[in-house]
Design goal:
408 residues; alpha/beta; Molybdenum Cofactor Biosythetic Enzyme, Chain A; Molybdopterin biosynthesis moeA protein, domain 3; 4 domains; six-stranded mixed sheet; 27 strands; elongated; binds adenosine monophosphate; binds magnesium ion
C-alpha cells in the first residue's frame, strides 16, 4: 500500500490542530518547576503585608525631626520577625533593623549613619519626611494583582514570588507521560558487542534524551521485535500509564508493516510520506485512546521528525505556546544542493565569525549518520527546487542547541 505525500507545513498543522493541552493538575510548588501555570495566580493579600524599615537606624516621627538637629528618647527596639517593643510617642524613637516592622507612631526612619546614639538617647542630625526609608505594604503587589500570569513557565523567580504570595501549590499543565517503543528484529540493548546484522537501539535513546530535554521522564519498555502479538501487548499494557506513544521503525513501504497493522487494530493510524529529507514515511493517530506518533527507523529521520512534529506537539500538550526553535539566518560555507520536490534539513554547525553567523555542514545527507546531528547545532532549511544554495548565501537555520554552546 502506498503512502500519500504531504508537505512539512501541512503535517505540522494537522498534528498541532489535533493535540490539546492536558487537563491542569494542582501540584506542590516545587513540583511545578518547569511547568506552565494554568491560571492567573493573584495576590491574596498586599505584598509586603506590613510596613518595614529599608535601613538599620531609628524609627522616628517626621514632625519630631523636622527641626533637626534634635535629641529623642530611645524607648526600645524593633527586630525582624518580632512585634516592636511598644509605640513611638512624641519626642521618642526606637532602634529598628532593616526589614523589621515599623512601630506604631513612627512614620520614617533615620538611618544609623545620620544619628549619634547613647543607651537612652538619640541625636538625629537631619530632617526626614513621612515615608522616608519605609517599605510600605503592597509595594510589590496589591491584593488581587497578578503574581504570575497563566501561560508562564515556572522558573526560580516565579516559584519564589508564588511562595511570597502564600501559594503552597498551584495548578499547572502536567508533563506529558510518553512511552517510547523501538521495533525491529535487528535491535539489541547497548552494552554487548552486536552479532552479525544486529544494531543497538539508538532511536530509543535519541527520543528519550530529547524528551528529557522537555522535562519529560519517558517510559521505555524493552525492545519489541517485528511481531504483532508482542507489539500489541506493549501498547495495551502501557496505555494506562501514558498519554502518548512514540514508536520508531517498521514504517517503510514493503516492510512487514507490523506497526501499522497493530495501531490500526487498536486505534487509528494516518500514515503518509512527508516531502522532506530525511524522514519520509511517518504516521500519526491514536492507540488505546492515547496520541500516537510513528517514526521511521533511520536515526537522523527520527531526530529531525521529532524536532519538526513531535516536540511542538508535546509542548502544546504541556500548555506551551512557544512551540518553535529559534531560527537564525547564517551564511553557508559551502554550496548545498536542494531536492526538486522536498525540503532538505541539513545538519550544520552555526558559529560566530566577526559578529556575523556562518554555518558549515557536519557531514553527508544520508539519514543513517547520527554523528552529523551530534556535531551540529542546527538544521539548515534548504527549500525545494533545482537551484542549490550557494556558498556565501544566507539560509535559515533552526537551532536545536543554543549558540553559546558552540566551540567552533
Ligand atoms: P525500518 O523503518 O524498520 O525499516 O528501519 C529503517 C532503518 O533504521 C533500518 O536500517 C533499521 O535497522 C534502522 N533502525 C530501526 N530502528 C532503529 C533503532 N531503534 N535504532 C537504530 N536504528 C534503527
Ligand atoms: Mg524495522
Amino acid at each position: 500500500m502506498g503512502y500519500e505525500m504531504r508537505t512539512v507545513a501541512g503535517v505540522r498543522k494537522d498534528i498541532l490542530d489535533a493535540v490539546r493541552p492536558l487537563d491542569p493538575v494542582t501540584v506542590p510548588l516545587l513540583d511545578a518547576w518547569g511547568c506552565v501555570l494554568a491560571e492567573d495566580a493573584r495576590a491574596p493579600y498586599d505584598i509586603p503585608t506590613f510596613a518595614s524599615s529599608a535601613m538599620d537606624g531609628y524609627a522616628v516621627r517626621s514632625e519630631d525631626v523636622a527641626g533637626a538637629p534634635v535629641t529623642l528618647k530611645r524607648v526600645g527596639s524593633a527586630f525582624i520577625g518580632h512585634t516592636p517593643e511598644g509605640e513611638v510617642g512624641p519626642g521618642q524613637t526606637m532602634w529598628i533593623a532593616t526589614g523589621a516592622p515599623v512601630p506604631p507612631g513612627a512614620d520614617c526612619i533615620a538611618p544609623k549613619e545620620d544619628v549619634t546614639s547613647t543607651t537612652d538617647s538619640v541625636a538625629v542630625h537631619k530632617a526626614f519626611t513621612a515615608g522616608q526609608f519605609i517599605r510600605p505594604p503592597g509595594q510589590d503587589l496589591k491584593q488581587g494583582d497578578v503574581v504570575v500570569p497563566a501561560g508562564k513557565i515556572l522558573a526560580g523567580p516565579e516559584l519564589g514570588n508564588l511562595s511570597t504570595a502564600g501559594f503552597a501549590e498551584v495548578a499547572v499543565y502536567p508533563k506529558v507521560r510518553v512511552c517510547v517503543i523501538s521495533t525491529g528484529d535487528e535491535l539489541i540493548e547497548p552494552g554487548t558487542k552486536p552479532a552479525y546484522g544486529q544494531i543497538p537501539d539508538g532511536n530509543g535513546y535519541t527520543i528519550c534524551g530529547c524528551l528529557k530535554e522537555l522535562g519529560i521522564e519517558p517510559v521505555r519498555p524493552p525492545i519489541v521485535p517485528d511481531d504483532e502479538t508482542l507489539l500489541r501487548e506493549v501498547f495495551v499494557s502501557r496505555a494506562p500509564e501514558v498519554d502518548v506513544f512514540i514508536s520508531s521503525g517498521g514504517m517503510s513501504v514493503g516492510d512487514l508493516d507490523v506497526v501499522r497493522k497493530v495501531v490500526e487494530e487498536l486505534g487509528r493510524i494516518d500514515a503518509y510520506k512527508v516531502a522532506m529529507q530525511p524522514g519520509m514515511p511517518q504516521a500519526f493517530g491514536s492507540v488505546e485512546g492515547r496520541t500516537y506518533f510513528g517514526l521511521p527507523g533511520n536515526p537522523v529521520s527520527v531526530f529531525v521528525s521529532f524536532e519538526l512534529f513531535i516536540r511542538p506537539a508535546l509542548l502544546k500538550m504541556m500548555g506551551r505556546t512557544d512551540l518553535d526553535r529559534p531560527v537564525v539566518s547564517a551564511s553557508l560555507d559551502e554550496q548545498m544542493a536542494g531536492l526538486p520536490d522536498k525540503t532538505r534539513y541539513s545538519r550544520v554547525l552555526v558559529y560566530r565569525d566577526n559578529g556575523s553567523l556562518r554555518a558549515r555542514s557536519t557531514g553527508p545527507a544520508a539519514s543513517n549518520l547520527l554523528g552529523t546531528v551530534v556535531k551540529a547545532n542546527g538544521l539548515a532549511v534548504i527549500p525545494p527546487g533545482d537551484e542549490p544554495v550557494r556558498a556565501g548565501e544566507q539560509v535559515n537555520i533552526q537551532l536545536y542547541r543554543p549558540l553559546e554552546q558552540i566551540h567552533a
